[in-house]
C-alpha cells in the first residue's frame, strides 16, 4: 500500500516538475517583466524543492523495493527450510487455528496439509496431558513467552508419539500475539528406550511385579504416608513352601510359569492401594496400608494362604503349593524400613518352622493373641448357633417410689468348659468379627420375649434396656433389625430403651443422628450409657435425641466421700434435668450413695445395692415390686405395688 502511495506521489511530483520545466523555457527570458523575473526565481526555487523531493522519493522507492526483495527472499529461504526440515513445524493464528504445516508434520502425524489446515492442534491430542498442562501452555504463550515441553501426541492411525516441542508466540509491534509457531522433534524412540530401561530397573520381567528396588521405594513412601495417618501398616514376607522341589523336578519353565500364576493370585487378593512385589526366586512381599486393626492384616493373610493352596494347572501338571507368611506391623513392631524388613523375614522363617502354609506375626505375643482371638471368634460363631448365650437382668429402681421401673438385659456366654463368661471378655471380638449384629438381634428378641413372658397378668410390662455397641451403627443394620424385632411383637415398643455409649456419637455424627431419629420414630427411647467416661461432650446431650443419661459407675463409686465426684454427679444430674432428660446412676452399692443420689434428685438407680444381674426366673419375682436396699421386695403390708407400678 505504502509503496503505491510513494510511487503515486513520485509520478505527481514528476508531472509538476515537467510543467515547471516547460514554463521555465529560457526563450522567454528577454520578454520578462520584473514581476515575471521574480516569478522566475520563485519557480527556480520550487524546482529545487521538487527535485530534492523527487530524489528522496526515488531513494525511498529503491530502498523499499530492495527491502521487499530481501524479505521475499528471506521468506522463500525460511519456507524452504521449513519445507525441507525433518522437524515438525506448523503455524497457527492467535486462536490456534492451523495456517501452515510442513512436510515434517505430515510425516510425523499422518495428516496431510489439507487435513490439518483450518483445524486446531487438538487434531493430534492424545488425552495424556492434564488440564493443568494446557492451562500452563496457554498462560505462557498468551503472555508472549515460549512454551517448551515433551508432548505425547496421537497420530492419525491412533498410535502415540512423543514430541519435544517449542511453541513460540509471534508478536506484532504492539506486542500483541498474532500467530504461534510450533517446532518439534519426534523423540519417541529415545523416550520409549528410557521407559524400557526404567521398567527393567524397577520391575521383574517374569511376573511383571515391582522388583526389590521398587519395593524398597514403595515401602518408604508407604511408611511416610502411614506416619501422617495414624493408621497401621503391615509388611508381609511370603515364601512358597515347596517351590524348589517343583523347579528341580519339573524344570525351570514349569517353575517360571508357576511363579507367574502365583503372582496373579497374590495380586487378586489385595486392594489397588496395596502392593505385591517379587524380591527374587519364590520370595514375595506385600505392603498393606491404612490398616485400622491387626485383624485386617489377618484377613488378607488368610486370603493369601487360601489363594495359593488351591491347585495350579501348569500345562499337563497339577501342582500343589503352599505359602508361609511373616507379618510385621508399623509402628507397633518397629519404625524403620530396614528393621521392619528383618522382622517380616524372621516371622516368615518362624511360620516355616511351625509347619508352613500359614502366617506368623513378628511379635510372639501378638501371634498368641491373634491365635486366641481366632479361636474365640470361631467358638462365638458356634455359640450363636448352639444357643450358648444367656441373658441376665438387673433391675433399675425408681428412687421416688422404690418400684422396679425397668431392667437392663446383660449378655453372658455359657461356655461348655469355661462356665459363665462375662460380656467384656467377648463383646469386643463380636464387634470385630461382624457377629455383633446377629447377636444384638438375638438379645433384642430374647429379652423382649422373656420379659413379656415373666410379667404376670394384670401387671404392666416393665421397661427394658438393651445395650447396643458402636458396630451396630455402621450402615443402617440397627434400625432394620430393631424394626423387624418389634414387628414380630406387634410393633409395640413396650418401653424399650437402647443404651449406647459416647463412642457411638463420635462416629459419623450425621449418620448416627439420622439412625437415632429413625429409632425414635419406632417409639424407642435412647439412653447414653457410661456417661462421664470417654470423650464426654456436653454438646452430645443437646445435639442427639437422648432421653436418659446413665452416670457411670466410676463417678458413683467414691461418693459421698470424694467431693469432686459429688460435684460431678450433682452437675450431671442438674444439667440433664435442665435439658429434660432422666438420670440413672449405675453401680450403686451403698446406702450412703443412695441417700446422696436421692438428695441430688437422681431419678433412678441401678446397682448391687438392690440387685445383681439375675437370670430371668429371679427377675420375674422382682417385676412390679417395690424394692428396699438389699433387694428384698417391701412386705405386702406396704400395699400391692404390682398393681400400681408405672413402668
Ligand atoms: P453396662 O451397660 O454399663 O452394664 C452395667 C455393668 O455394670 C454390668 O456389667 C453390671 O453387672 C455392672 N454392675 C451393675 N451394678 C453394679 C454394681 O453395683 N457394682 C459393680 N461393680 N458393677 C455393677 P456386665 O454385665 O459385666 O456388663 C458389662 C458391659 O458389657 C455392659 O456395661 C455393657 O456395656 C456390655 N454388655 C452387656 N450386655 C451386653 C449386650 O447384650 N450387648 C452389648 N452390646 N453389650 C453388652
Ligand atoms: Mg448398659
Ligand atoms: Mg454402663
Describe what this molecule looks like in 3D.
The protein is α/β, with parallel strands linked by helices. 48% of the residues lie in helices and 21% in strands. The strands form four sheets. It has an eight-stranded mixed barrel, surrounded by four helices. It is elongated. The protein binds ligand C2E and magnesium ion (MG) (2 copies). One magnesium ion binds at residues 529-530, 550, 586.
| Structural class computed from helices and strand pairing | alpha/beta
Distance separating the two termini = 106 Å
Q: Strand percentage, roughly?
A: 15-25%
Which distinct ligands sit in these coordinates? Answer: ligand C2E, magnesium ion
What order do the strands of the largest sheet run in, or round the barrel if closed? 13-14-16-17-18-19-20-21
Helical region count? 23
Fraction of residues in helix: 40-55%
Mean pLDDT: 86
- Largest sheet properties: 8 strands, mixed, barrel
Radius of gyration: 46 Å
* Number of beta-strand segments: 22
Q: How does the overall form come out from the CA principal axes?
A: elongated
**Unreliable runs, pLDDT <50, ≥5 residues?**
636-647
